[in-house]
Amino acid sequence: MSERLDKRQGEWIDRSRSIHFQFEGDDYTGFHGDTISSALWANGVHILGRSFKYHRPRGIFGFDDIDCNAMMESGSTTNIRADLTLIEEGMSVKAVNTLGSLKKDRLRFLDYFSAFTPVGFYYKAFHTPKRLFPFYENQIRKIAGLGKIDAQTPMKTVIKDYGFCDILIIGAGPAGLSAAIEAAASGANIIIIDQTPHPGGTLSYRYKNKGPAIDLLNQLLEKVKACNNIKLQLSTLASGYYADHWVCLTNKERMTKLRAQSVIVASGCYEQPAVFHNNDLPGIMLASGALRLINHYAVKPFQHVVILAANADGYRCALDFHEVGIHVVALVDLRREGEQSELDKQVKGLGITVYRGHFIYEAIAGKMKASVQGVVLRNLDTDIPVNKESEIKLNCDGIAMSVGWTPADGILRQGSTRMEYDTRLEQFLPIECVKGIFAAGRVNGVYALKDQLEDGCCAGAEATALIGLTKPGNNKRPPKEESPQSHPYPISDHPRGKNFIDLDEDVQVKDIVNSVKEGFDSAELLKRYSTLGMGPSQGKHANLLALRILAHLRGETMRGKQITTARPFTSPISMGHLAGRIFTPLRRTALHHRHKALNAKFMYAGDWLRPEYYMTDGLSRNQCIETEVQNVRNRIGIVDQGTLGKIEINGPDVVTLLEKVYTGRFAKLKIGMTRYGLMCDESGVIIDDGVISRLADDRYYISTTSSGSAAVYQTLQRLVIEWGLEVILVNTTSTYCAMNLAGPHARKVLQPLTDVNLDPDAFPYLGIREGIVANVPARLSRVGFVGELGYEIHLPADGAITAWDAIMTAGQTHGICPFGVEAQRMLRLEKGHIIVSQDTDGLTLPFEAGMKWAVKMDKPFFIGQRSLKIIENKQRERILVGFIFPKNYLSPKPKECNLVVKNGEIKGRITSVGFSPTMGQLIGLAYTAPEDSDVGSTLSIKLDDGSLVEAKVVKIPFYDPKNLRQKING
Amino acid sequence: MPYRLLRFALNKKYAEPPMFTEPSKLKKSYDVVIIGGGGHGLAAAYYLARDHGITNVAVIEKNYIGSGGTGRNTAIVRSNYLTAEGVNFYDKSVKLFLDLSTEFNLNLFYSERGHFTLAHTDSALRTMRWRAEVNKHMGVESVLVDRAFIKEIIPEIDLDCRHNMPVMGALYHPPGAIARHDAVAWGYGRGANMRGVEIHQNTTVTGIEVKNNKVVGVKTNKGLIQTNRILSAVAGYTPSITKMVGLRTPIVIHPLQACVTEPMKPWLNAIVVSASFHLYISQSSRGELVMGASLDPYELHSTRSTLDFAEGLSGHTLELFPFLSECKILRQWAGLSDMTPDFSPIMGKTCVEGFYIDAGWGTWGFKATPASGKTMAFTVANDQNHEIIQPFNLSRFEQYELVGEKGAASVGH
C-alpha cells in the first residue's frame, strides 16, 4: 500500500531515483532522499520498533530526533536512528531489541506484566537470595540494552578538522537565515548549519496554507547564495558547545572543531507531546512530525485523524491535513475558550468538528496495539463522566498532537545560558546568554514568522557589533510571543496507565507519581530513580512533561523550576567521529632503523620505542642479554640513549636555578666538567636524576631520565617564571641524539673518529668536551652509568646515523656490539646504580635509596630541603640494600616487586633483580627494614607462589667497588 | 518472579513507603551535624544511628542527595591497592558492599565482574606485580595474568591495540565490581532516615562557629544549628568547609570526567582499566558503556565538560575495542576530585575539637563509601580515630607519614 502523495512543492525526495532496501528481511522501495522511517511509512509499514521496557509497537512519533521509537541495526552498525538516516541502495536493517522478529517479538508479553515492574522495580527485587542475583542480573542485562554489537565490525573513523569563523549560526530556518543575511553585510565570515539535509526549518514544512512559505525560503536562500562570506552546511549537527565558543560540528563524513567569535542559536523548538492512555500507538504523532512527513517526503501519515490542539498551530495543521486529502475527524482543543483567531472559522468551514475544552482520555488500540482505531474524549469540566455515554468516541487511524513546544536549547544550556520558565508563554526562555551567544527565533520565544525574521536580523546585527565589525545599532528585538503556545498541563491520568511521558524509557505518569511518593521529588532525583530522560533522546520530549507533573504533585507552579543539567552531546555522536584517525604519539630515536636492521627487539618506554635487546638466532632472550653485558665488560658496546631528556640551560641565573632544583652543588662545577644531579619534590621524594654539565660560565647542559624529560622541562619552565630568573631553557630531547660507547676498548675505537683528545689527562673522568665525531659536531662526556670506560656522545639527530655507522665500523675489529635496555639495566645493577621510578617509588627519600651523598643539606635552599631536614631526624622506615643469592641458587627466580617480609609483615620489595653474568649469581636491590639492612643480614623474600626464599645483604656496588674500571687506560 | 514484585502487582494501593521523609524545619541543635549528603555523609549517618545509637543527627546537603561524586563516578568497587593500609581499608569496604543490598533491602546491583588493569609497558607490569604481591599478602584476590588469560575472558579485546603499545599482561582482581551508585546513597539515606536522622537537602552551610578551638555550631542559609560534633564529608568542596574552621589541608581540586554510550546488548562483563591509555570502561546493567579517563591536568573548581576528553577517550577505547567506532557517546559529565599528595584520603579527628574530616577522596571515593561511613561513624561517636583509618589522619602531612597510593590510583596520574 503506497501512502505517497502527489509531488509537494519543495519536497526532499528525488522521485527519479528509486532505492531498494530491506527491513526485517522484507524488500521495500523508497526514493532517494527518504529516511528509513519515511520510506517505510510510505510503504504502509507503521511498526518501526519496539519500546524499551514493555516492547510495545512503536512508529513515527516526533520525526525530529527527539525520540528513539525507530532504532535499527544493520549487523555491523547498531542503534541507527531511522527517522534521520537516509536509505541507501541495498541497505538491510532490522529493529533493535526484539526477540524473534519485530512483528512477533517474543518479549511483547512484557506489556501485560507491567504491573510487576513498577518504577525502580529492579531496586526492589532480585537481591535475595544473594546467590540468585547473578542469574537475575544476567537475565536483566539481556533484556535491557538496545542494539547488538558485532565485534567483527571493522573500525571506521572519520576526518577531523578545525574550523574558524566570525559567526556560527545554528539553524537554517527563518531566524537563522535572516541573521546570516544581516550579518553578512558587515563582511563577517559566517557559517550557518542545519541538522537536516535541506534548509528552511519551519519554512520547509509549515505555513504551506498561509502564503508563500517556499517562495520566502527561496528568496532568503537566493540572498544567502549571493553572499560569498556565508557558508551553508547542511546535514550538520552542533553536537556540543564548550568554553569560549568552541563548538563540535558533526556530519556523516567529518567532525569539525570550530572556534567562532560569536554564536547565534536559531535552533527552533521541539514539539512536545500530550499524555493520555496509549499515547504511544503507531499513528499517534506530533503534528510537526506529521507535517514533515507530508511536506518533506510526500507521505501521508494517516487517513483519518483526530487533532489534539492547544494552540493555533493545531488549527493550521487541520487546514494542511485537509488540503492533502486527510480526513480530519475532529479537532479537540484543550482550551475551554478554543481558538480566538480566524483559524477557528476556517477549520469549521471545512466541516471539521471542534471540541473545545476536551481532552483525549485514551486512544483505542487496534490489534496487537499496532495501530490506533479511535479515541475517547472527555470534557475537561466534567472530567470523569458518570456514565460512559458522556464520553465521546471517535474512529480514526491517527492522532496529531499540537499542544506545545520547548526550545531546542541544548547548545544554549551547554553554553551556560540562564533559562527560565515563562508562565505567560508556558515554556522556558533564554534570559541571559553568555557574551557572544545570541538566541533568535522560536528558541527565543518569538513565534510569528515576521518577528522571527526580525529577531534573526537583530541577532545578526548584535553579533557583528560584538565582534567589532559594525557599530552597535539601536535595533530593538521584536516582542516575544504574547499568547501561550503551550498547554500548561496536557496530561491526563488513566486507571490503566500506559500514558507515556518518556517513550525511550517507557516511563508512565504513575511512575512519576510513585517516584515522588518514594521521596524522589526533585527533577534530578526523579531522573535517576525513574530513568526518565536517561534514554538515547535524553528527555527531549519528556523532561518538560515530567517537570510539569512534579510541580503539580508538589502543588507548586512552574515558576523557578529547572530541568536537569544539559550536557553534551545534543544528539549522540560516534566514537569514530570523536577519535578521528587516532593520532597516537609514538617516538622513535634517530637510530631506530639501524636497530631494526640489527634485529633489535623493541620495547615501549613511555611513547618511545627502544631496543630491549638484539636478537640472535639460536640464543634465548636471557642469553642475548648476557652476551651483551659480557661484551661491554670485556670488549666494547654501544647503547642508544636518545630517549634521555636533554635540556640546554643558558643565562646569568642558571646557577641559581640549578642550585635550587637539584640537591647537589653546581656553583663551583668547573667548566668542562659534569656532575650527577638528583631532584626531589617539596616533600623530599626523589623525582628525577641526570647529569649536569657545565659548558661555560652561564651555559649548562643537563640530561634527565627518559620518562621524566617532559615533566622536568615543564617544572623548570614554571620555576624560572615563578622565581623571576633570567634563564633560557631549550628542550633538545628530540633534536639531539645520544649514545653511550662503553667498554675497555672505548678509547681506542673513538679516538680515530674525533678531534677531541681522549687522553685521560686531557679528558678526565666526568669531563665533557666539544668537538666532532665522524665529522658531526658532538659533545662527549665521560660518565659511568654502566661502570666501564665510556663516552656518552650527544650530537644532532640528523648526524646520528653517520656517527653510529662510523663507530660501528671502527669498532668492528675490537668486537663492538650494540646493547639494549635490558643489558644496560644489568650493567648498572652490577654497579648498584639506581633507576629513578624503578628503584624508587612515589615516596622514596634520598636517605632510603642510599643517595645521601648526592644531597647537600647545608646548601641555603633546594626543593625538598625543608622536608628532608625534618625527616632526617626521624626513624627510617626502609633502606634500599643490595642482596645476592648463593651462586648455586637458580630457581625459582625471584622477580621485581616480590615482597620482603618479616614475621608476616611487609618490610619492602625487590626493585631490581637479575642474573649477573659478571658475578655469576642472582643479584638485586630491595627495600627492607633498617634493622635488617646491615651487610650480612638475611632477607626473606616471598615469591609469586607464596613460598619464602632467603637472600643475603651485601655491600654495593656488586662489581668493581673501587670504580677502577671507568678510569682505566684502555 | 520474586515475591516482592508480585505484591506490587496484586496490591491496589502503591505498596512502597517513601524512602525519605521530608524533614520540617531545622531543629535548634543536633548531637551531630554531617555536612554533605553524598554516599559518605549518609553512610556515616546510617552507622551512627545503627551502630552507635546516635540518631539526633542532621545531614546538610546543599543540592540533592548524591549530587556530588556519588552520582558522578564510574561506579567501580575494588580493593587491589598498593599499600597495606590501603588494601586493608578498601577490602573492608568491598566486604561491606557485598551485604548492603540485603541489609538495605534495596538492590544496589552490586555486580562482581572482575577487574583488569592492563599493563602496556614493563614498568607498568612491575607496578602490577607489586600490587598483586601486596594484595595476595593481605589476603585480597589479585593476580598478574598474561595475554592469553585476558583474551579468554574478554575475547573482543584487541591486545595489540592496533600496534600501539600492545598489552603485555594485566593485574586481575576477580572481586572487582560495579554498582548502581546513586542507589548506594539512597540506601544509606533511607536506612539513616528510618532511624531518625534528618536529611536536609537544598541547605547550604555558610559558616562554622568555633569557640576555644571547639566547634559549637553550624550556620546555614536556613538558620543556625548548635552542635558539638561536625563531620565534613564534602569531597570536592572540602577547602571551603575547612576554611571555615581555619584548617589547612594539602587538597587540590581537579576535574575528572566520564561519559556513557547509548545502551547496547551485553558483551563486556569485565571492568577494563588501562593506565597507559588513561581509560576505564565497564558495561552497566542497562547496557551502556561507562567510561572514564584520568584527571584533567589542571586545577579547576568546575564541573564543565571538555571535548578533548571525549576525543582522547574515544581514540583509546577504539584502540582496545575497534569495533565500537560507530557506537555513540550519549552524555559526558565531570565531577570534582579532591586530590591529596599521596593519593590517600584524609580521615578522622582534626586539631579542632569536634570537627571530623572525611576528605581527599580524589578518584577513589565511591568504592570507599561503606568503610568510610563505618569508620567515621565510629570516630565521631567515640571521639577517637578508628584503627584502620589512623594512617589517613590529616596530621600525617606534617609528620611526613604519607601513604603512597599513587601507583594504584585508577589511571595514570
Structural features:
heterodimer; A: 970 residues; alpha+beta; FAD/NAD(P)-binding domain; Arc Repressor Mutant, subunit A; 7-stranded mixed sheet; 6-stranded mixed sheet; 22 helices; B: 413 residues; D-Amino Acid Oxidase, Chain A, domain 2; 8-stranded mixed sheet; 24% strand
Briefly say what this structure is.
The complex is a heterodimer of chains A (970) and B (413). With 970 residues, chain A is α+β, with helices and mostly antiparallel strands. In chain A, 22% of the residues lie in helices and 28% in strands.
Describe this structure in words.
The complex is a heterodimer of chains A (970) and B (413). Chain A has 22 helices and 49 strands. In chain A, the strands form 12 sheets. In chain A, strands 8, 9, 10, 11, 12, 13 and 26 form a 7-stranded mixed sheet that branches. In chain A, strands 40-41-42-39-33-43 form a 6-stranded mixed sheet. A 6-stranded antiparallel β-barrel of chain A has the order 44-47-46-45-48-49. The longest helix of chain A is centred in the middle third of the chain and has 18 residues, at 449-466. By secondary structure, chain A is an alpha+beta fold. Chain A is elongated, with a radius of gyration of 38 Å. Among the domains of chain A are: 159-270 and 406-466, FAD/NAD(P)-binding domain; 273-401, 3-Layer(bba) Sandwich (FAD/NAD(P)-binding domain); 489-557, Arc Repressor Mutant, subunit A (Orthogonal Bundle), CATH 1.10.10; 643-732, Alpha-Beta Plaits (2-Layer Sandwich); 829-856 and 873-966, Aminomethyltransferase beta-barrel domains (Elongation Factor Tu (Ef-tu), domain 3, Beta Barrel), CATH 2.40.30. Chain B has 413 residues and is α+β, with helices and mostly antiparallel strands. Chain B folds into 2 domains: 26-73 and 182-251 and 342-408, FAD/NAD(P)-binding domain (3-Layer(bba) Sandwich); 112-177 and 252-339, 2-Layer Sandwich (D-Amino Acid Oxidase, Chain A, domain 2), CATH 3.30.9. Chain B is 29% helix and 24% strand. Chain B is built from 10 helices and 20 strands. In chain B, the strands form 4 sheets. In chain B, strands 6-7-5-15-16-17-14-18 form an 8-stranded mixed sheet, sandwiched between helices. Chain B has a 6-stranded mixed sheet with strand order 9-2-1-13-20-19, with helices on both faces. Chain B has a 3-stranded antiparallel sheet with strand order 3-8-4, with no helix packed on it. In chain B, helix 2 (39-52) runs parallel beside helix 6 and helix 3 (84-104) crosses helix 9 (369-382). The longest helix of chain B has 21 residues, at 84-104. At the A-B interface, helix 2, helix 3, helix 12, strand 29 and helix 14 of A face helix 1, helix 3, strand 4, helix 4 and helix 6 of B.
